[in-house]
Amino acid sequence: MPRARDPNRDKAFEIYKKHEGRIQNREISKLLNVSEKTISGWKCKDKWNEKVNGVLQKNTEYSKHKKNKKTKVDVEEVNQVMKNPELTDKQRLFCIYYVRCFNAVKAYQKAYRCSYQTAASGAYRMLENDRVKSEIYKLKQNRLNREFLSEEDIFQKYMDIAFADITDYVSFGTEEVPVMSMYGPVKVENSKTGRKEVLKQVINVVRFKDSSEIDGTILAEVKQGRDGASIKLGDRMKALQWLSDHMDMATAEQKAKIEQIKAKTEQIKNNDNDDGEDGVVIVNDAPKDIGYSDTEISSDIQQQDN
């Protein structure tokens, strides 16, 4: 039976619409006493930004609109940078590339057409240039204003990915279940009472939580394969690196929160395999029609390649 829709879901959107999108997820969560992750999930699934901006259209129309919008944004960014006489042509290119990918090395490589080694050293110096920093800040603010996003929103999303708790998405543990045969539960005689009792065993179980209860924007992949259903979280190590490179975007509260969980960061690094696997995969290979597995079916948690 489908789960009843949470009435706070519609209330949350009404609050967001009332503020014309200029309210943080954290503020809405406080007003409704709902977790910030839940608000973030509703915002993504229900397409709040599109509804508020009035651009929710059919897929074909939206794709065309998105392409035209991207072209318009690119032209606006180029025109803005070209008006800055204090920058060289290469510096202008660097600024444009940087606000698209937020990766200084990649932006430097594309602007200067150089090797990775050269870009790695040059990118740092470029970001130390006050004129370049000022132009990048202007471009970032203009882009964020167009998308009704704040730097705090973006930083928070990377925090959610980096410090995602797997128990928000699955529950796992052990259960005592009957030992099954082709004729049903196996029964054995109790030596003390002389009565036949169902033979039981302890098994490992993994259960996915309902999609309405989780923030789906943190998931990189959900699939049904030969070995069962699996979900994959976003790449935590890449998110951690992004956070490290963009601490200037964090609020005081976000910085304090990161300080509190620095110890967990090291634990995450140590738990990752040496072969550089990224992301976390949860595999549930139990059949769909039962809530547990028997002796021939196992449920496990494992790392796996992309």
Detail the topology: elements first, then pairings.
Layout: H1 7-18, H2 25-32, H3 36-45, H4 48-53, H5 59-82, H6 89-101, H7 104-112, H8 116-128, H9 130-146, H10 151-162, E1 170-178, E2 180-181, E3 184-185, E4 187-189, E5 196-198, E6 200-208, E7 219-225, E8 228-233, H11 236-245, H12 252-260, H13 262-271, E9 281-284, E10 300-301
Antiparallel strand pairs: 1-6, 2-3, 4-5, 7-8, 8-9, 9-10
What does this structure look like?
This protein is an alpha+beta fold and 306 residues long. It folds into 3 domains: 7-56; 59-146, no CATH class; 166-301, no CATH class. The protein has helices spanning 7-18, 25-32, 36-45, 48-53, 59-82, 89-101, 104-112, 116-128, 130-146, 151-162, 236-245, 252-260, 262-271; strands at 170-178, 180-181, 184-185, 187-189, 196-198, 200-208, 219-225, 228-233, 281-284, 300-301. The strands form 4 sheets. Strands 7-8-9-10 form a 4-stranded antiparallel beta sheet, with no helix packed on it. Strands 1-6 form a two-stranded antiparallel sheet. A two-stranded antiparallel ribbon has the order 2-3. A hairpin with a 6-residue loop joins strand 4 (187-189) and strand 5 (196-198). The model is unreliable at 55-73 and 286-306 (pLDDT under 50).
